[in-house]
Design a protein that fits this description.
The protein starts with 19 loop residues before the first helix and ends in a 13-residue tail after the last helix. It has twelve helices and 13 strands. Helix 2 runs antiparallel to helix 4 and helix 3 crosses helix 4. The strands form three sheets. Strands 5-6-4-7-8 form a five-stranded antiparallel sheet, sandwiched between helices. Strands 9-10-11-13-12 form a five-stranded mixed β-barrel. The chain has a three-stranded antiparallel sheet with strand order 1-2-3. About 40% of the residues lie in helices and about 20% in strands. By secondary structure, the protein is an alpha+beta fold. The chain folds into three domains: about 90 residues, no CATH class; about 180 residues, no CATH class; about 100 residues, OB fold (Dihydrolipoamide Acetyltransferase, E2P) (Beta Barrel), CATH 2.40.50. Strand 10 and strand 11 form a beta hairpin.
Length: about 400
């Protein structure tokens, strides 16, 4: 049985749903001046490449956007709210940002509208006309960035060298609030991770990236893979190493940086400023070795599952058979497959026919992504209330083809 590839598209991360920040960035009503901290605005302008070019000391600063010809446009941003005209200056600066339409202005407005930690990816790839990257290179950047975020979200929910199908659904759901903005040229990408609920993801990724870099360097210096064992606690996993391989492959190198939201400051135990973590094509062999090792050595997990039977199959009227369960409790996976002896198979079939889930003991095997239960024992129906039983019976009547005693494919 195969597990779902980590690069399978999630609910949109690269092409995000509409967000209040987007409206402000595209020329609609900007944030209200009384909701903006001048220090946070100044920090975001500096982060996104705006240049400070003087101003009245202690009163306001003049900022010009990045790029050629930037001196023709400027913003006056007050140092604080201590002066009577500070709110007027903030209002004028926000209107000018909303009308600019440049990526540097848009990203500042997003950071103001939704206080966020920012994760940046850079890929060094050959460029075409006007410095633009080829379409496949841009798609590869987006796909790899999505994999990196998912690996970090998985690590937030539990440390493991290989996550497989475990926690994948809630991890993917946690990325729904993430906003993504691509820089012109297709070689850079920025993810805005809202402080609530996303800061644990940003912190875990920050720690995991540094741990991965240190483990690679240790492998190169000593020939040992021991550092990758300890790096699991920091969030490094098969999924993260595979994501880094996808990011670096076909490039001349890649970098990832985590920049903390000015409104919240630096999390405890994290570096400031957080320098980008670099990975090169020379790291690929070590990353692939670590990826395979994580998958190989991750142990099976003893579990007691409760689930509903959604598919049954055996080759004849008697003997053992294969059952597929939709997991209700006991493991963070959506479905498992298990082989039952004749008596246990009969119990599972009867429970399914009367609309009851079953409980079973066994071990979740890492092979196949923790989707197979081995050593199944103690199969027994579980009593549920009438409403739940009616729901299960309705599901059975709508899916009678799930009972496949003698024929039909099993996944």
């Amino acid at each position: 049985m195969t597990h779902r590839p980590i690069d399978e598209p999630l609910r949109p991360v690269g092409a995000m749903r509409a967000h209040p920040a987007d409206a402000a960035a595209l020329g609609a009503q900007p944030p209200e001046p009384d909701q903006v901290d001048p220090a946070v605005l100044s920090a975001l302008l500096h982060r996104h490449g705006w240049q400070r070019r003087g101003g009245a000391a202690g009163r306001y600063a003049r900022w010009t956007p990045p790029g050629p010809g930037s001196s023709r446009t400027s913003l006056l941003v007050p140092e604080s709210r201590a002066f009577p005209d500070s709110e007027d200056l903030l209002g004028e600066a926000l209107v000018a940002l909303s009308r600019s339409g440049t990526p540097a202005a848009r990203e500042v407005l997003v950071g103001l509208a939704v206080p966020s930690d920012e994760i940046r990816w850079w890929r060094d790839v050959p460029t075409g006309p006007a410095g633009a990257a080829a379409w496949p290179a841009e798609e590869q950047l987006r796909t790899a960035a999505r994999q990196v975020l998912l690996a970090a979200a998985l690590a937030v929910r539990g440390r493991a060298g290989y996550h497989g199908a475990r926690h994948r659904r809630p991890a993917a759901a946690s990325l729904e609030s993430v906003l993504v903005g691509a820089a012109p040229g297709g070689r850079q990408l920025t993810a805005f991770v809202p402080l609530t609920p996303g800061r644990p993801l940003a912190v875990r990724l920050h720690q995991a990236l540094y741990a991965a870099r240190e483990a690679i360097d240790y492998r190169r210096a000593t020939g040992g893979m021991d550092a990758f064992d300890g790096a699991v606690e920091a969030g490094v996993s098969h999924e993260l190493t595979e994501a880094l391989v996808a990011l670096v492959r076909g490039s001349q190198g890649a970098r990832i940086a985590v920049e903390w939201a000015p409104a919240a400051g630096v999390p405890e135990g994290c570096a400031t400023p957080a320098e980008p973590v670099e990975f090169s094509p020379g790291d690929l062999s070590v990353l692939r070795e670590a990826s395979a090792r994580y998958m190989r050595v991750e142990p099976s997990v003893p579990v007691r599952l409760t689930g509903t039977v959604v598919r049954m199959r055996r080759s004849g009227p008697r003997g053992e058979g294969t059952v597929r369960l939709r997991v209700i409790a006991g493991a963070e996976v959506p479905h498992v497959r298990l082989t039952l002896d004749e008596e246990a198979y009969r119990i599972a079939g009867h429970a399914h026919l009367v609309g009851l889930p079953i409980r079973v003991h066994g071990r979740l095997e890492s092979r196949g992504g923790f989707r197979r239960l081995t050593g199944a024992s103690g199969v027994a129906p579980v009593q549920v209330d009438d409403a739940e039983r009616d729901r299960l019976m309705k599901s059975l009547q709508e899916n009678l083809d799930f009972l496949e005693e003698a024929c039909g494919a099993d996944d």
